Amino acid sequence: MSxxxxxxxxxxxxxxxxxxxxxxxxLTSSRVTLDFVIRLAAFGIFATxxxxxxxxxxMVSFGHAMFFGSGAYTFGLLMQKTGASIPxxxxxxxxxxxxxxxxxxxxxxxxxxxYFSFLTLAFQMLxxxxxxxxxxxxxxxxxxxxxxxxxxxxxINLGNTTQLYWFACVVGVVCLLMMRYILQSPYGxxxxxxxxxxxxxxxxxxxVWRVKLYAFILSASFAGIGGVIMAMFVSGAFPEFTYWTMxxxxxxxxxxxxxxxxxxxxxGAGLLLLFNDIISRTTExxxxxxxxxVLIFALGFKRGITDFVVQAYRLATRKGLxx
Amino acid sequence: xxxxxxxxxxxxxxxVITQTSTGLIVGALLFLVAAGLTLIFGVLKIINFAHGSxxxxxxxxxxxxxxxxxxxxxxxxxxGVGVGIFGLVFERFIMRRVYKADVLMQLLVCYALIxxxxxxxxxxxxxxxxxxxxxxxxxxxxxxxxxxIIPVFYIFLIAAAAVIAxxxxxxxxxxxxxxxxxxxxxxxxxxxxxxxxxxxIYAGVFAFGGALAGLAGALAAPVRSMSPGMGFSxxxxxxxxxxxGGMGSVSGALVGALLIGLVRxxxxxxxxxxxxxxxxxxxxxxxxxKPSGLLGKEPRA
Lengths: 323, 301
Fold this sequence. Notes:
The complex is a heterodimer of chains A (323) and B (301).
Chain A: H1 7-27, H2 31-56, H3 65-82, H4 86-108, H5 113-133, H6 135-138, H7 161-184, H8 186-196, H9 198-203, H10 208-234, H11 244-257, H12 264-282, H13 286-301, H14 305-322
Chain B: H1 3-11, H2 13-44, H3 51-69, H4 72-93, H5 103-125, E1 143-145, E2 148-150, H6 152-174, H7 176-186, H8 188-193, H9 198-220, H10 231-245, H11 250-270, H12 275-289
Antiparallel strand pairs in B: 1-2
């Protein structure tokens, strides 16, 4: 089978996006902007990984933060306790998240819809309470403090903020490309078919459970990378990373950005980060404000931002054809 | 990990009685919350993720009513009715709009409600831990049965939950109204064809489930401290209860709740750090071996 020609377009867009992001530190010296992009890289990967399950697999997980947090904690612990190099610790975090995803996914993916959501939520609370109770290893409520060493590797020094920024951008774009590649592959289309009609897929000889489980493991692993970037950025890992509100935010990022366009979750992540920054600056009642925004989107717009854009684009091109 | 302590407790009658009574009140509270959750699921086919917040609202309403009236009975009624009305309003104006939508929207709406209610509680009652204290009527010396200590309030709480369970069983299985609710759970289209307004059945069940959670919150108020966000842990536990007992089965919720309550109270002696792990393990086992739960009906193909 020849290489899919369509993917050239994605590579081009990714290269262009990366070029702009890499050039950004030369254009602005604003720390806030760079910090924002680093967080966007972490949450963009996290939200997109969740969208593998929600948008492409039709499985609405409400516990995805357990993998985000597990990635952050595994990475931090490997760096602190074993003195591993950053790439090795990252790999370790991904492997741990994949294994966790295998175990939890094996139990969860057989279940239908809302049952699945609740069960993932429940497992997340288990992970959260393990992290909070196991004080000797994880630092409990206080989180994994003491800083995560940023040992230089391959000539890259992540102690330098600009280099950390570049690193986050590269990891973010590469992860998005990988997820895009997987979702455009035959496997990606099998996953869509399972979402749309599991019975038909079964008749065609597809092992539905396995397809769903692979999606669960994949999304767990990528969420772990998001967690690693976050851990690097804040130089620590905190129980809030695995708390249910984090999962709720990820679900909202997807919905707000739009789950039908691949880039939707990243747009949503950016918007929510922006909202959060504005909200926490103006009011102490963060939940109240965020809750109202969520209701406006869920009951008012009923669609994400990119859905509107796609719709407008389609409308415009159709008109162009007619005239 | 202290299996010796657990063994010693199990061999002493007084310890068994004390721990059983603790387990029973935990189970009774869990049952009230889980019964509402499972009823709503059975009839409306949605899981109310915000159910724990209704429990929290009940506890805080009871606290305020108690401070004003000084009567625990009044505060319990206020909490039950108040949260029931809140449930009704929430169902009519918000939840109803997402029945036909996908799970994602239902989830988000509940998520929003949890966030909003937590902050509303913070605004009205403050972010600090609060406690109601034991109402005067129950400030009697505890009962001693075979050396075991049982506070008077525990007996009241267990009795109240038992009465509610009986009423629930009677209403659902013996009355005309119960028949309608079961019909709506079984086949909503056919029920509405028969001229029954399913919209109002849905609203009623949601309000009733909310009222049960509110009652549980009020009954828990004298023995638990309150804080915004308190609803979340009971939400997870009552979900585990409904999975173990069988989704949609009220009797299953009772069995599951008592089981979890006893595991909690005896587990806290023998293996305090693994109590939660054991609950989840039990849930995972049930899901793998008998996904419909202990007393749940096998889903029809």
